[in-house]
Specification:
STM4215-like, 6-stranded mixed β-sheet, 9 strands, elongated, Pvc16_N, DUF4255 domain-containing protein
Length: 195
């Protein structure tokens, strides 16, 4: 807290991840995934029993959403504009079904995940958690147009065979600056007219 306002909110990336996880868990259980705990955050190769994993694999500055205006914080301080970033997530599906029905099961899970993210393409309201709930900015969810070859090249997990995955871009996400500048406001103005 500085000058009566909170700055330096760096937890917004974690809040976006938690919000996505909450959304998927609420809308994908009990069908096609039987329990919410089977949807989680983690690398596609983490040991575990996730049917659907959400993996933050890249963060990029969002040049199109860069802000340049200082933010007024009271009468004597200005805060530098926030850093705008886009978050890139990989959703990976892994069904425990028998080999004969595994692929179809994974396709159903993937289809439902895509449907949920499409129908909730703007994170807001009761969907969001943490500091994200206190902000007025909209965070959009857009499927990344990554080619099959591009997805395979992103799948760089040593000896682990490729699993059905898709990529999403979520943003813009604003990370507050901790820099503030003291300013003196004009309290009086003397206007003299010369004739």
């Amino acid at each position: 807290m500085r000058g009566g306002f909170t700055i330096g909110d760096y937890s917004v990336i974690a809040d976006v991840s938690a919000s996505l996880l909450k959304l998927l868990r609420e809308q994908m259980t009990p069908d096609p995934i039987p329990q919410p705990e089977l949807i989680g955050l983690g690398s596609p190769v983490d040991k575990g029993d996730f049917y659907l994993s959400l993996f933050l694999f890249n963060v990029k500055e969002s040049g199109n959403n860069r802000r340049t205006q200082m933010i007024s914080r009271g009468t004597d301080q200005m805060q530098y504009p926030p850093l705008a970033v886009d978050l890139h997530y990989m959703l990976t599906v892994q069904s425990p079904a028998e080999l004969q029905s595994r692929a179809l099961d994974e396709h159903r899970i993937l289809g439902r995940a895509m449907q949920v993210l499409y129908d909730n393409s703007v994170l807001r309201g009761s969907t969001v958690v943490g500091t994200l709930a206190e902000r007025e900015e909209e965070v959009r969810i857009v499927m990344d147009n990554v080619s099959g070859e591009g997805m395979l090249s992103m799948w760089n997990f040593a000896e682990t065979p490729y699993r059905l995955s898709i990529s999403y871009m979520v943003g813009p996400v604003m990370i507050d600056s901790t820099r503030v500048k003291s300013v003196k406001r004009v309290l009086e103005r003397d206007v003299s007219i010369q004739g």
